[in-house]
Amino acid sequence: MSEAVYKVLVRDHSGNLMAVVDDYQHLAYYRRINEPGSFYFVVEANSNVAQYLLLDYEVEIWRSWHEYDVDWYIEFEGFCRSRRIKTADNGENTLHVNGVGYADLLNRRIVGYKSGNTYADKDGPAESVLKEYVRENLGHLAISPPRLRHGVLSGLTIETDTHKGEKWTGGQAYKRLLVACQEIAEISNIDFDVVGTGGYTWDFRTYENQRGSDRTQDGLDVTTGLNAAGNPPMVFSPEIGNVNTPEYEYERTTEINCAYVTGQGIYDEREVSIVTLPSLIDDSPINLREGNRDARFEPDRDNLAYLGENMLLRREGYERFNFTPIQQQASSIYGKHYFFGDRVGFSYFGHVDSKKIVGIDCVVDANVEKFQFELRDRVY
Questions:
Q1: What is the pLDDT of residue 374?
Q2: How far from each other are the two terminal CA atoms of the chain, in whole angstroms?
Q3: What's the pLDDT score for residue 122?
Q4: Pick the CATH number of 5-105 from 1.20.1250.20, 3.30.70.100, 2.30.300.10, 1.20.1260.10
Q5: What are phi and psi for residue 313, nearest 5 degrees?
Q6: Is there a cis peptide before residue 145, judged by omega within 30 degrees of 0?
Q7: Across-strand partners of 19?
Q8: Angle CA 74–201–103, to nearest 5
Q9: Are 266 and 374 in contact (CB under 8 A)?
Q10: What integer pLDDT is reported at residue 327 of this predicted model?
Q11: Angle, CA of 234, 236 and 238, to the nearest 5°
């Protein structure tokens, strides 16, 4: 039986194809929702591709599996950031290449405005806030002034804003742009990414509710076999036989369910707003877990409670299901029946739920791919 096939394409700073690598000795990539992710591959040190592995040259990892009608598609795309040559004890010389996904572009800027203005402090739908921060710190509005330093990235576009997602209020002055976006995404129903559009150009995009598609059993129509979203459901379970080494985790060690938000003023005059999540507190007789958020620079007293709610949402516990997928079933093929970011079902030791595919680790050795998947709701 055949295996999935990979190839690596390398493009220069103009988007021109410079090399195709299909003779790698080792290939790996790491994907996480709302993170740049990373890749790594190894070739012979004297490989012709070595001359093209320059700083920020684009690297595309393509995947196909023709036996299951999975045509070539880009599984991961990013920038070359480091390389090294190693000589083994047997005298073999190898070239090791590392890089990061396109969302690393957000990691190259901070929110470069002083606090107290509409460039640093935002109030609106999460999608709108995300796109404003990116537009004003990396996109065509990242000009100085008003930004403290010119930061426009030529070639970056911002997807049209549709004003979706939960309301977000807060300030992100001087924070790394990627961290600011992650904090907003963590407490809203909006995911984000930077996607290549060809010719050394990229587009910042957001995804409401989930990065991928709904492949749960919610609203399943037994007649058509489709769920409420019109997709065939995807369920992972040892009983079905499509997982190896499953692991379920229920984690509430770092939970905070009562937030003290301290605003302006000093001593007895300092504003304090207390926000709680009673349903979590009541889960056990002693489960009150308090925390503090310093909001002394928040001028609007009415926003203190909102900041506390945001804090608690980020510090809830979580459920996680990790597993290695078995793909030798015609109905359970990655890249055909389910994809990164999809919401899928799982059943394991009485735990039956739906979670998002938030993480994929893949290693390819001797043309055999080995996956590890992570399912959970919120990314921390």
A1: 96
A2: 39
A3: 92
A4: 2.30.300.10
A5: -60, -35
A6: yes
A7: 10
A8: 65
A9: no
A10: 85
A11: 150
Q: Cα–Cα distance between 206 and 204 in angstroms, integer? A: 7
Per-residue model confidence (pLDDT) at position 328: 67
Angle between helix axes 126-137 and 177-186 (nearest 10 degrees) is 180
- Which amino acid would we find at residue 54? L
Q: Is 374 helix (H, G, I), strand (E, B) or coil?
A: strand
DSSP 221: B
Determine the 3-state secondary structure of 197 from DSSP.
Answer: coil
The pTM score is 0.91
Q: Cβ neighbours of residue 359 under 8 Å, at least 6 residues apart? A: 31, 32, 33, 372, 373, 374
Rounded Cα distance, 63 and 371, in Å: 13
- Alpha-carbon 112 to chain mean position: 23
Question: Residue 367 and residue 375: Cα distance in Å, rounded?
Answer: 26
pLDDT of residue 378: 65
Q: Residue 88 in contact with residue 45, Cβ under 8 Å?
A: no
**Buried b vs exposed e over 277-298: b needs ≥16 C-beta within 10 Å?**
beebbeeeeeeebebebebeeb
**pLDDT averaged over 10-residue windows placed end to end, the chain, 380 residues:** 89 97 96 97 94 97 94 98 96 97 98 93 95 98 97 97 91 95 90 96 92 93 95 94 94 94 91 95 96 86 85 87 87 94 95 94 93 83
- 228 close to 205: Cβ distance less than 8 angstroms: no
**Which residue(s) pair with 356 in the sheet?**
343, 376
Residue 217 has, within 13 A of its CA and on its CB side, a CA count of 10
Tell me, rounded to whole angstroms, the distance of Cα 228 from its chain centroid.
25
Compute the distance between CA of residue 157 and CA of residue 146 in angstroms, rounded to an integer. Answer: 20
Is residue 73 within 8 A of residue 10, CB to CB? The reply is: no
Contact between residue 272 and residue 261 where contact means Cβ atoms under 8 Å apart: yes
